[in-house]
Amino acid sequence: MKTQILIAALFLSGLAAAQQTKDTLKIKNIEAVNIRKQVFKKQSDRFIYDVASSPIAKGTNTFNLLKQTPMISSIDGKSLKIMGKSDVVIYINNKKTNMDAEALIEMLKGTPSEDIQKIEVITTPGSEFQVESNEGVINIVMKKKKNDGYNGTLKMNNEQAYYNNPSAGASFNFRKNKWSVNSNFNTGSWTDRERYTLSNGDSTFRNESFGYNSDPNKNVGGSVNIDYELNKNQSLGFTYNMRYNKSFNSILDVTNWENGALINRTVNNENAQTRNHSFNLNYEIKTDSIGSKLTSNVSYLWFNRDKMSTNESFPLNTDPENKYSALQQSVPQIINNYAANIDYLKKTAQGNTWLMGVSYNHTNTDNDTQQDKIENGAMVNDINQTNHFIYKERILGAYVTYERKLSDKFSGKVGTRYEMTRSSGEILGKTSFDRNYNNLLPYLNLNYAINSDHNLTYSFSSRIRRPRFWELNPSRTYFTPNNYTQNNPFVLASKFYNQEISYMYKNAFFANLSFNYVEDASNQIPLQGSVTGPKKDENGNTVIATTKFLRYIRTNYGNNKQFGLTLGMNKSWFKEIWTTNYSVNLGYNIYSGTVSEDPTSVPVPGQTEVIDPYVINFKNFNISGNINNNIRLSSNKDWFLGVNYYYGSKVKIESGTLGVRQSFDVSLKKIMGNWTFIAEVYDVFNQNYNSIQGIQPNGSYNNIVNFEYPRLLNIGVTYNFGNQKLKKAREIKSANDAIKSRT
User: Fold this and answer.
1) Which GO terms describe its cellular component (predicted)?
2) For residue 61, what is the DSSP state?
3) Phi-psi bin for 673: left (phi > 0), alpha (psi -120 to 50), beta?
4) Cα 224 to the chain's mean position, in Å?
C-alpha cells in the first residue's frame, strides 16, 4: 500500500456576449454588453472552480480535469494533491467517497468531465467534514439533470512503463420516474517495478544492498448506487462497493555487501489478496422549502487482506558463519466496521445555516501473524515474532457548525467537533492495553470580500490523526533478515492545529499563507542498533556474537511546525486558446524529537539489544512548483495539447533529506463526437524518483534510492453513449467513510 505526497493549484475566467434590444419604435444601435463569468472565485471557506464555464473541460475525464484545477496537481498519474496539504479527501456532492485510493482514481478517470458542474477546493475543512491531520478536501459537484433514460461510458487504457499495463472500465446510469441507478465496473492488470540502492552504517561498519522488486497485480472493482424517491421530500438509497486485488509471485531480489565484501543474496517471494466489501443504507427527508434536510446512514464494511511470504538468504562467500537462512510468514488481517450517523442541515430565511450531526463507529480488527524460521534444516515456529493481535475501537462523534453572512462583504463560520475514542488492544497471551481519549476540535472561518477584485479569508481548525489499522498490526515486512519494517500497536494519535490566511485578486491570482503545529507527531523512523547474544558456530558450539540491524519503526517522535506560502495564477490568453495554471509553494519546517528505544522490542533471555538514538532536530526551507499549460490546437475545439512541469527542491523529512524531483509531462487529445482519444507521456526524462540521505549527529547514516521507472506512456480511448443529460442518483455519504480511509 503506497501513499504519495505533494502539490495543488486554482482558477480561470471566461466571457459571454449578450444583446439587448432598445425601443423597437425607434431605430437605435444594438449595443453589445460583455458579461464576465466568474470561472474561479473565493466563497466563504472554499475556492470554487466553475468547470461548466471552462474551455478545458471538454472531452476529457474528471481526473485530468482535477489536474488542471488551481491548487490541485498530480505528478504521477495515480494520485491527487492539494498544494501544502498532507493528503486529500474526495467528496462528491458534499458526500465523502467510500472507495479505496486506487478504485477512486479509476472512477475519476472513467467519469466524463461534461458531468461536472464545479470543483470546490477546501484547504481548511469545517467541523462537518470527516478529515484528519492536515488534509484538504476536493468536493466535486455533479450537474443536476432531470431527463429520464440511460447513458454510460466505455473506457480502455494501455500504459507502457517497465511493463505493459492494460485496463478497462465501464459505467452505466439509468433513470426512470422515481428510480435512479448508477453503476461502474473496472478491471486491469499492472506490474510495479522498482529498483533499490540502500546503504547504512557508521564509521566502523558499512552495509550496502542493491536489488529490485517486481509486483504483479490483477484488480477487479465496482459499485452500484440505487436511489428511490418516496415522495417529493423523501428519498431512500442503497450503495454497494467492492474491490478485489490479487498480487501473486511478487519478488524482491537483493544482493548484500558488508564492508565492501559480498555477503549474500536475499529473495522474498510474496502472495497477497485483498477483498473489500461495503454496504450503506441512506434515508433523506427535506424539512422545508429553503433547503433544510435530515440525513441518516447505516453502514457495514468488511476488509480482508491475506499475505504469505518466504524470505531466503543464500550465502555468496566462503565464510563458514554465513549460512543459508529462511523465514516464512503469514499475515492475515480482517476488519469489521459497523457505523451510523445522523446529520441535520438547517437553513433560515435570513440566509444563515446550521449544520449538526452525530456519528458512531465500532471497529474490530483481527491480525493473526504466524512466523517460522529454519533451524537444523527444518522450519520451526518463531515464538518471538508469532502473535495474534486483536484491536477494538469505538468512536462517538458530534459536531455543530453555524454559518452567517454578517454583511454584503463579511461572512463567518464557526463550529466544533467532539470525538470520544475508546480503544483496546491485546496480543493474546503476551500483553494488552487500553487507550481512551476525548478531543474537542474547534473551527473558525472569517471571509472578507473587500471589493469585486479582492478577497481575504482567515481559517483555523484542529484535527487528530489516528493510526491506520495496518500500522497497528505488530508484524514485520522483511527486506533482508536484518533490514525490515516493524509496525507498532502502541503508536499514539497525533493532534494537528492548522491556520491559514488566503487572498485572491481578480479571480486570477491567489496567495495562501499557512501554519501547522503537530503534537505527538509520528512516522516511520529508521532505527539502527545491534543484538548481542549466544549463537551456534559451524561446529555446533555456542559462541557470543553481535548482529547489526536496521528497523523502520512507525512511532511517535516529538512535534513539528510547518510554515507555507503558496502563490498561484490561473488565466486564459488569446481568446481562451491558451490556458495557464501556475503555482509555487514555499515551505519552512521545524522538526524536533528523539527516538531512543524500539517500542516493539520484547526482551529475550541471554540477549542484549542496543539502539542508537535517532535524533530529529532540524530547520529546513524548501520550494516546489507546478506549470500547467493547455493549448487548443484547432478552431473546432477538437485538438488539445497539454504541457506540464513539476519541480520539487531538496526537503528534509523525518528519515533524511529527500533529493530534487522533477517531472515533464506532455499530452495530446482528440475529440470525435462521442469518442475521445488521448496520448500522454509522464516524466519524459525519468526524474521523479525518491533519493533519501539520512545522517545522524553520531555519524551513523542510512541512504535510500528508490527508482520506480516513472516514465510512462498512456494511450486511452473513451466512448460516451446514451442520453448525456440524464440526472444521476444521489451520491451518498456512508457512515463508515472515516474508517475506510484507515484500512
Assistant:
1) cell outer membrane
2) B
3) left
4) 23
3-state secondary structure 686-727: CCCCEEEEEECCCCCEEEEEEECCCCEEEEEEEEEEECCCEC
The whole-angstrom separation of Cα 174 and Cα 180 is: 6
Cα–Cα distance, 446 to 459 (Å, whole number): 7
Question: Please, what sign has the CA dihedral across residues 99, 104, 106, 110?
Answer: positive
What pLDDT, in 10s, does the model give residues 457-513?
Answer: 999 999 999 988 888 888 888 888 888 998 999 999 999 999 999 999 988 899 999
- Domain architecture of the chain: domains with CATH: 153-741 (2.40.170.20)
Q: What nine digits make up the cell of 731?
A: 451520491
Between CA 550 and CA 207 the distance in angstroms is 10
Q: Which three cell numbers stand for residue 4?
A: 504519495
278-310 tens-digit pLDDT: 999 999 999 999 999 999 999 999 999 999 999
Give the span between the Cα atoms of 196 and 209, in whole angstroms: 8
| CA–CA dist 723, 150 (Å, integer) | 6
Q: Cell 506549470 appears where?
A: 627
How deeply is 299 buried, as exposed, middle or buried, from its count of CB atoms within 10 A (0-12, 13-18, 19+)?
buried
**CA triple 189-193-196, angle to 5 deg:** 160
356 vs 221: CA distance, rounded Å: 34
Dist CA 83 CA 90 (whole Å): 15
Collect the ranges in the chain with pLDDT lower than 50: 1-36, 728-729
Strand partners, 497: 462, 517
From its phi and psi, is residue 611 left (phi > 0), alpha (psi between -120 and 50) or beta? beta
For 203-227, b/e burial (b = at least 16 CB within 10 A) is eeeebbbebebebbbebebbbbbbb
Helix (H) or strand (E) holding 104: helix 101-110
Q: What is the pLDDT of residue 98?
A: 58
Phi, psi of 161 (to 5 degrees): -115, -130
